[in-house]
Amino acid sequence: MSSTVLPISFGDALTRTAEVSQTLPADDVGEKLVLNIGPSHPSTHGVLRLVLELDGEVITKTDTEIGYLHRGDEKIAENMTWNQFVPYTDRLDYMAPLANNVAYACAVEKLMGFELPPRAKVTRVICCELARISAHLLGLGAFAMDVGAMTMFLYTFTEREKIYNLIEFLTGARFTTSFTRVGGQIRDIPPGFLEGVSEFCAQFPAQLDDFGSMLNRNRIFVDRTKDIGIIPADVALDFGLTGPNLRGSGNDYDVRKVFPYLDYQSYDFEVPVGQAGDCYDRFAVRMEEMRQSVSILRQAVAKMPGGAWQINDPKNVLPAKDKVLTKMEELIHQFIVVTQGPDAPVGEVYFGAENPKGELGFYIHSHGGGVPHRLKIRAPSFCNLSVLSQLLPGHTVSDVPAILGSFDFVMGECDR
Amino acid sequence: MEGITLLPEFRGETSGIVALEKIPEVMAALKSEGFTYLVDITGVDNQGEDPRFEVVYELCDLSKKKHLRIKTTVAEGDPVPSVSAIWRTADWHEREIWDMLGIRFSGHPDLRRILMWEGYPHHPLRKDFPLAGLPTEMPDIAFTAKAPLEGGPFVTSSAVLTQDREPRAQPSEERNL
């Protein structure tokens, strides 16, 4: 029996749409459909709402609606003392609460003019890098799941669990850590914590290689991310993109390198950048950043100095509890710090930190005293999402989950 | 640079004041000088001062590793010239300032509310907007009920002087114990 071969050509979405529109009745051509994605939709990772105008399956216009998680954090900050605001920073980028705590504390310390002792700085670097790995793992797992690789999510959560155990060991909380205070942390690192971090660093790179090989040779994953959602470097910077989303486009801006804080200049690490600026590059940049974070963690563990873990300034930092209960001076200081807050000078500062999602900045305008006059949070997810209305038109609806997943945004931070 | 009055350095940061009408001109010049990255725009409400509002621009020159803050003041009701044609990231920042503080931006392509919904009557980050909220036509959504624990012994209130803000300094009928 002879068989015939029928060649199938599929073409890309834009040519398909053009072909189909030729066969349509004349009054159907150019008819637009408005599709509403969100605010509650699995691919929007929170409460983002996209109003898409479609011509067939091609997006012609995008309106990004945010604000569904607006809690008025900046208003709240104007009504409380510096240290009282720390728990609110946990809830900005809730994938990496430790990194937010550190960024906020560093911003207030910049205003105060405090210089942290070396042990506190190294402790904070460990906090930041653990948070970065944890946030990237979740971003990676959710991204892979959105484009059809379910297994990935379970693997990355196994690794995140180990980080959560370390964070619980360090701060007493797994999720809402509230670990930093102005001038230091709530406590010194517990004995055995550094060994735990070393243990994690020893086994994690092999896991990361596994994750990489599961995705970067996966035909479905690569087809759905390569050459999708391309952002040129100049457009990325024009829209204020930061973090892996900017570096995926080829711009090497990393706050840790350009404006070093916490002595990041003394660590040896590299800043990965992408070339094409597509979804795959943003994924690849995050993978490499996790390897660099492991390297930073190893260096931090190796050089952890002894000595004080908070600044020596009794009027602004909580004294040791046993002294509060037995000494007059310390009792008075405890009372002042708790009720009035650390006494800030008049002035204004901006402090940006390289968080997992990008540059998290705090602009503090102080009129003196224990509360800010204005505290503005420069949220990386807010700026990253603003590019969507420029980026999505021309893509198909099926590209939307891939693009949103590759952006790895958090609405808690975007809406504040 | 012409048009910028530099302020004394504080914590290693350079700030400068620019007259309101000069903003587009100075900003375009700064961008061509290398400040290609607009980090953030913030509005500050200095209620009781004249002019009432301050708009603060944070700029970065990534190749020279320089940070610059540009400030301008604007009276209530006056528009600020938009810089969204210079940096497209300014689009959303200016919408947020309009939403939160009620400062208008002239020349902005799409000045809608961004965090609150269209039609919300107040600008919540103004200093005369109380923490507990103000009445609206949608009382079930934008309510004015007391915030949890409000007036309680552990909740501070908004004021500059610590002795006024300290909860124990409030009259007992206000504390609602």
How would you describe the overall organization of this protein?
- The complex is a heterodimer of chains A (416) and B (177).
- Chain A is 48% helix and 13% strand.
- Chain A is of the alpha+beta class and 416 residues long.
- In chain A, a hairpin with a 4-residue loop joins strand 7 and strand 8 (374-378).
- In chain A, helix 4 runs antiparallel to helix 5, helix 5 packs antiparallel against helix 6 and helix 12 (279-303) packs parallel to helix 17 (399-407).
- Chain B is of the alpha/beta class and 177 residues long.
- Helices cover 17% and strands 22% of the residues of chain B.
- Chain B has 4 helices and 7 strands; from the N terminus they run ββαββββαβαα.
- Chain B has helices at 23-32, 90-101, 162-165, 172-175; strands at 4-6, 14-18, 37-45, 53-61, 66-74, 80-81, 105-106.
- The longest helix of chain B is centred in the middle third of the chain and has 12 residues, at 90-101.
- Residues 168-172 of chain B have low confidence and may be disordered.
Keywords:
heterodimer, A: 416 residues, alpha+beta, three-stranded antiparallel β-sheet, 48% helix, B: 177 residues, alpha/beta, five-stranded mixed β-sheet, two-stranded parallel ribbon, 22% strand, elongated
Write the layout of secondary structure elements.
The complex is a heterodimer of chains A (416) and B (177).
Chain A: H1 13-23, E1 33-37, E2 49-55, E3 58-65, H2 73-77, H3 86-90, H4 97-112, H5 118-146, H6 150-171, E4 180-181, E5 184-185, H7 193-215, H8 219-225, H9 233-238, H10 244-247, H11 255-258, H12 279-303, H13 321-326, H14 328-340, E6 344-355, E7 358-369, E8 374-378, H15 380-385, H16 388-391, H17 399-407, H18 411-415
Antiparallel strand pairs in A: 1-2, 2-3, 4-5, 6-7, 7-8
Chain B: E1 4-6, E2 14-18, H1 23-32, E3 37-45, E4 53-61, E5 66-74, E6 80-81, H2 90-101, E7 105-106, H3 162-165, H4 172-175
